[in-house]
Amino acid sequence: MKIPTPILKLIESFERLPGIGPKTAQRLTFYLLHFPEEELQKFADSLVNLKKGTKLCEVCHNVSENNMCSVCSDSSREKNVILVVSNPLDAFAIEKTGFKGVYHVLHGIIDPLNNIGPEELFVRELKDRVLAMSDEHVEVILATNTSMEGEATAMYISKMLRESGLGEDILKISRIARGLPVGGDIEYADDITLSRALDGRSQF
Amino acid sequence: MKIPTPILKLIESFERLPGIGPKTAQRLTFYLLHFPEEELQKFADSLVNLKKGTKLCEVCHNVSENNMCSVCSDSSREKNVILVVSNPLDAFAIEKTGFKGVYHVLHGIIDPLNNIGPEELFVRELKDRVLAMSDEHVEVILATNTSMEGEATAMYISKMLRESGLGEDILKISRIARGLPVGGDIEYADDITLSRALDGRSQF
């Protein structure tokens, strides 16, 4: 039995997505066979419009519909508190905490094993951005993941900014706290998390 | 922060798929942001072509590129052994066992709780198909799932075919065996499966 080519092609497209294996791709494709044609057209349109309808904010490089995103064009946000994240989803997650500063989206993480260096990310743009506002007090919060690559990226950016000539009186660089997640059990926490939690202890 | 509309729309499209929740839909959408535009276009094209490029075989109602599918138009298949499945994926799964007969795809299962009756499925077409070949010996193998709905559908079809006036000498109706899956543990099998396995025991 030959599976019809249009079905095979859609299965292949789904298989290229992360976390979707051959079985799931099949299931999704056959599920879509029961969709009305106009729904499939809508799905297809939203795929095509994904990149056509979005650009990167020219200030923070987050995804946006306009040249400047809604955060960067909001005059009530604290422009001298710049939170650095590796991707837009991280910015959306932090936005939910009520953070009032602005963002800088790197669009990736330094990962030498996968040939991703600082040149592939919006790292240089961060330096330019910080230098352009050097007459104010600036805080750069490094909120990359707490994985090995995330720590390395944070370290690289911190070093780069320090070497740009801005003193500690003007430029403050911080890193999000690493410790036990809220509701976490000390008993089950790993060694590194626990030692980070101790190092980062605060007055009580 | 406002998530750009083109992104929201694609997230919504993904969320309509089975087994894809809001978080996964977000992750897939942001992953696709890094795809080149021509890849997105290809994905979109395969969605649109899914229904435009396929039809249902006029004999067995399986998905096919032509009016008659590759199985029904293959003269080496045993046309008088008709295996009834509820959807195309089941037919593809059974095809891998080397089954040499033909299929009949119902495109669903009788499920009164969800308002799906025999009229919504290709049940009547099965009866017509069997009656049209009544001069031969015919075997109908009911291979719907062994769930409650699958059993009910098998029962309904069996009754309908029996009442169509074909005697047991012409029309043989069978049901796939229900028992322990190969490699299964008797200790962990449920009561119903075990009693089905006993009922269906074969000479050794």
From TrEMBL, chains A, B:
Keywords: DNA damage, DNA recombination, DNA repair, Metal-binding, Zinc, Zinc-finger. CDD domains: TOPRIM_recR. It comes from the Bacteria. One of its GO terms (biological process) is DNA repair. PROSITE patterns: TOPRIM (PS50880). The keyword Ion transport does not apply. It holds the Pfam family RecR_HhH. InterPro entries: DNA_Rcmb_RecR, Rcmb_RecR, Rcmb_RecR_Znf, TOPRIM_dom, TOPRIM_RecR. Transmembrane segments: none annotated. Residues 80-181 form the Toprim domain. The keyword tRNA processing does not apply. A zinc finger (C4-type) spans 57-72. One of its GO terms (molecular function) is zinc ion binding. Belongs to the RecR family. May play a role in DNA repair. It seems to be involved in an RecBC-independent recombinational process of DNA repair. It may act with RecF and RecO. This is Recombination protein RecR. It comes from candidate division WWE3 bacterium.
